[in-house]
Amino acid sequence: MVKVTDITYETIPIEPTNESFKKCVEYIKLIGKDYKKMLPKKPKKTVSFEIHNSNSDFANLIRRNLLDEFTVYSMYMSETVQYDDSFHLNEVIEKQIEYIPILQDLEKYDIDKFSINLFAENKTYSIITIYSRDLEILYDNKKYAGESLFSDNIPILDLRASKKINITGIKICKGKAKDDSGKYLLLSNLKYKILDVIPLNKTKYETTGESSLNSNPSKFLFKLTNHRNIEPKKIMKICLGSIQKKLETILSEITKIKDSDTEYISDIIKFEILDNFKLIHFFGEYWTISNVISRYCYIEDNDIEFVCSSITHPTTEISIVKIKSNNYLKILINAVRNIINDVNIMEKSF
After folding, report:
1. Considering the entire predicted model, what is its pTM?
2. Is there a domain that residue 239 lies in?
């Protein structure tokens, strides 16, 4: 049973007191006196915590879901950019807009009703910078009156004198970082550290620590930082909720398998017997799920004859738990239930 300890929330000041920031301000003042207009309106926030009485596969389940299996709101360009500056590439402008971190508290909205436009014209004799604040946000064809979707000081492009740009129909979408790590990366930073084992470190002079193949760590540190667009506590709630939902769906499918079955297939899993081994394929899943289920199968029965995880191919999101035991169904079902219980313990901590 996992234990979550030392949960700490922290707000990072918009104007820190360190020397690096002071030097940045000096450089900005060379360009313009009002440096505050370059600063975001919201601070970044962090949450750190430790997981004890756990294992590396469960910790990796949390880490991987935070990094790239988390559903994130973003923007995408549905129409072509219209501009009269040949020095700008359409693909670059597209990425600059799509990579702007946007507000994640959009559950109460119909995201299909959002439409974001950009029209800018440089009527000066100098190059000007177009920022995210220049984007016009419409909801249901009316000016959006809710909380700002993004920080308003993010540069999009530099526009030369007498040039203009017109973009219409920028839409909001949902996706995961494993599909597009730039567009759907939720976190500004994620720190992950094993606390009770020194990791293996080899140099040509010495070898320190212990290989993960030989160690069994049980204490882990996490620290995550947001993009000013979602509360850290909510990040953990959504992450753990999505893991729980995924595992409950898998559990529901596994319980449909009977001891007498030699084959079972659905949209979620595939069960088959091969040379006295039972193979459970998980569609749409890579190493993460099969690793943690295999580990919990071993925890459930230390005398199990055989259990391991694998993937069908590096380019295919299908992972496999390979198991050999007379009580394989009971072990498998209990293993998934125990993972769900540990996820629930974590969720209640936040």
Report:
1. 0.87
2. no
